[in-house]
Amino acid sequence: MATNFIQNFIDEDLRNGKYPDGVHTRFPPEPNGYLHIGHAKSICLNFGLAQANGGLCNLRFDDTNPTKEDVEYVDSIQEDIRWLGFDWDDRMYYASDYFQKLFDYAVELIKRELAYVDDSTPDQIRQMRGTLTEPGIESPFRNRSVDENLDLFNRMKAGEFKDGARVLRAKIDMASPNINMRDPVIYRIAHVAHHRTGDQWCIYPMYDFAHPLSDAIEHISHSVCTLEFEAHRPFYDWLLDALDFDPNDRPRQIEFARLDLTNTITSKRKLRQLVEEGYVRGWDDPRMPTLSGLRRRGFTPTAIKNFCEEIGVAKANSLVDIAMLEHAVRDDLNRNADRIMAVLNPLKVVLTNVEGVEQLTADNHPERDDTRLIPFAREIYIERDDFMEDAPKKFFRLKPGGEVRLKHAYIIKCDEVIKDADGNVVELHCTIDPDSKSGGATADRKVKGTIHWVAAEFAIRAEVRLYDYLIKDAAADDFIASLNPDSLIVIENAMVEPSVKGAAPLTRYQFLRTGYFAVDYDSTDDKPVFNRIVGLKDTWSKVQSKN
Ligand code: ATP
Ligand code: MG
After folding, report:
1. Which of 210, 222, 219 is nearest to 245 (CA)?
2. Average per-residue pLDDT for the chain
3. What CATH number is given for 20-256 in this structure?
4. What's the 232 CA to ligand 2 centre distance in angstroms?
5. Rounded to the nearest whole angstrom, what is the distance from the C-alpha of residue 305 to the centroid of ligand 1?
6. How many helices and strands in the chain, by DSSP H and E?
7. Does CATH place domain 342-452 in 1.20.1250.20?
8. What is the pLDDT of residues 298-308, one digit of tens each?
9. According to a count of CB atoms within 10 Å of the terminal CB, is the N or C end of the chain lower?
10. Is residue 30 among the annotated active site residues?
11. Total-model pTM
């Protein structure tokens, strides 16, 4: 991992002999949605820091809000982290593992007169909180006795009160300039079953109470989180002081800038809305910025990790151009994806001087020696766009009377254009130069263009799904209104060379001249389905030179 300011803090701590047990980080998702590309950044950082420092990284589910959480998310989160290539070994924890401990800590705060039960309504609590410019007002319940607080808190736990009837608050300072210190709520009543603890609890700790204590319980050395938690840090410190956690053995919180990408939503709430309201086909729709969506689309873990490394860690929020992520994907696929031929929008070509079938040799990758055989025959398909009847001078593909080279095969000449009654071109009649293939007498003859093709008889009919950005402006107030109506274009009858037969989902190819494609889960033997991962053209260098 490249050096960054977080690593510098760690170096400093290690130099000063802090954390004798070594670096111990954690990735703490709330299981209320699928992980997205922003989480990948946090995963790479937390697991990466542990790896780079010979330490450990826990996976901990911050599952304190049962109304929004579900085991479906718990499962998908594990799958996504593993897919990225990280491993928490046997250190998978849940904040809910600590519910009893957290309750005991809350009781301890009450005993120390540092917490109280408040009967105010949520609205009243909000009103009494004050504003950035005005101090808050102390609750009339603030000075309850320890005994009364203990009694009420236990009865909250026993289920005597309805949701919202009472809360437990830390007793700090209603005049603090930091609103997070104005007696924050630390426990609330919610008669909701929890996906792990069932009906055992009807009071649940607030995130700000559970999170720092969970970190401390796990002896996390460096608690890395996004910038918005900077203002919460004083409360976390107060809490650990109040409960006598050893100042020399407690997490050091380090904040970094969250990842925001152009044309990309990184809010679980919004992503969930897209799924629930049917704007996409599910959490793993290949247009989604979720890790499961990117995986299905054909993005590779290597590309995502390289991207996270490339953008580095910053101390100030900024917007990263999505072209940079696409660049990382292209870079990886360029190196690793096999090249094949597929015609997305087929135009039939009859090669009038060809009889029978010939197997031609084609290289699988420009930097490797392995090859495959591709059938060549009298009828082939070429891309409709590669022929033009009234072609401008600079058009170097096929035109009436013109020549073009078929990749891995012969030079052909267009002799005749066949049209239907409406004047649409339906077929071309061409002849090959039989000596122009590799090794032939005229193999080196130069023609300006080379196009891809597939043999009609052997081609596999496939569905190809082309994607554009799901959202035009991710910062738009109404993100639903900013959805791109053309984010998915389905091509029903693309023609792909037969070598793809039986390819497993997520097999990735470069379709020559067209882009990178991955086999979709919907694929069947009869009808393969391909997702376009990215086009061939890299726009990242353009973006860079503009800046
Ligand atoms: P949301 O607000 O969309 O629900 P979240 O940040 O609350 O997302 P968590 O499950 O709490 O989601 O996130 C787990 C970890 O991932 C946290 O440590 C969080 O800071 C980090 N994280 C979430 N989004 C991003 C992002 N866009 N960039 C970097 N880290 C992120
Ligand atoms: Mg969160």
Report:
1. 219
2. 96
3. 3.40.50.620
4. 13
5. 17
6. 13, 27
7. no
8. 999 999 999 99
9. C
10. yes
11. 0.95
